[in-house]
């Protein structure tokens, strides 16, 4: 067990020593890492679904830092989970880390957070690994037995790359307010995938929209995908202050 170090980092945000407790293979290119939060930092590491943490390897002379959305709901405390795609220099290195590896982590931050209100619905659209914060959204709603209608539209190139597919499918069967619609864009015609094929388009969005003025819309993924989804949401009449984004690239 690592000795706990709790220090003030950028803008006074708490930084702690942590370590990887376990590693779970989600897809051929995605792994979920469970990280331990020292008891001294439990208060500082309370978070709202959708927030992110910044991690780095303390062994590096010039630490490379990378922000990752927390993919677990708050109910998993004193642990949190980060789901990492084998992508980019930092992501490739992180993806290969084994259980027991020491890391340093800055306390949660970010405004891309779950918001709910009576009579409203939540509509989430995810491209690729952009689905990670939505696992925290849906997991939290399930843990609280929330009654807010929520729909997740998730797209990936291949069916095998639909992160958390089995978990979302199970949640949709056990949590009535939640609807899950996965779609793949590059599956071969002979592939046994029986779900929807093609991109998330205006027709799919409208099918799950409800009243635009009472919909909270979230888009997460690569910048081109997110911008396309925001354009669809605007065309559908969702007000600007109800459209939220998290993007990269």
Helices and strands, in order, run as EEEEEEHEEHEHEEHEHE
Radius of gyration: 18 Å
Shape assignment:
globular
Poorly predicted sequence stretches spanning 5 or more consecutive residues:
none
**The CATH topology of the largest domain is what?**
Rossmann fold
CATH class of the largest domain: Alpha Beta
Largest sheet: 7 strands, antiparallel
The helix content, as a percent range, equals 10-25%
Q: Strand-residue fraction?
A: 25-35%
Please work out how many helical segments DSSP would assign.
5
N-to-C CA distance? 36 Å
Average pLDDT taken over every residue: 94
- The CATH superfamily of the largest domain is known as Nucleotide-binding domain of ferredoxin-NADP reductase (FNR) module
Count of discrete domains: 2
User: What would you call the structural class?
Assistant: alpha/beta
């Amino acid at each position: 067990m690592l000795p706990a170090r709790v220090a003030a980092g950028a803008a006074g945000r708490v930084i702690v020593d942590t370590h990887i407790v376990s590693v779970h293979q989600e897809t051929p290119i995605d792994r979920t890492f469970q990280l331990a939060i020292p008891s001294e930092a439990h208060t500082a590491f309370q978070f709202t679904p959708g927030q992110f943490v910044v991690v780095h390897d303390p062994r590096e002379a010039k630490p490379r830092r990378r922000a990752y959305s927390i993919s677990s709901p708050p109910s998993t405390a004193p642990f949190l989970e980060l789901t990492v795609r084998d992508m980019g220099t930092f992501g490739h290195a992180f993806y290969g880390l084994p259980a027991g590896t020491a890391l340093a982590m800055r306390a949660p931050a970010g405004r891309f957070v779950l918001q709910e209100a009576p009579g409203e619905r939540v509509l989430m659209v995810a491209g690729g690994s952009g689905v990670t914060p939505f696992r925290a959204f849906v997991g939290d709603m399930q843990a609280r037995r929330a009654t807010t209608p929520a729909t997740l539209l998730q797209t990936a190139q291949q069916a095998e790359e639909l992160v958390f597919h089995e978990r979302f499918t199970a949640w949709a069967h056990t949590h009535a307010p939640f609807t899950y619609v996965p779609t793949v864009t590059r599956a071969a015609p002979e592939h046994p995938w029986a779900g929807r094929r093609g991109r998330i388009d205006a027709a799919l969005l409208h099918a799950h929209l409800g009243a635009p003025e009472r919909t909270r819309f979230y888009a997460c993924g690569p910048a081109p995908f997110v911008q396309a989804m925001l354009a669809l949401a605007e065309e559908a009449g969702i007000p600007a202050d109800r459209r939220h984004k998290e993007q990269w690239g």
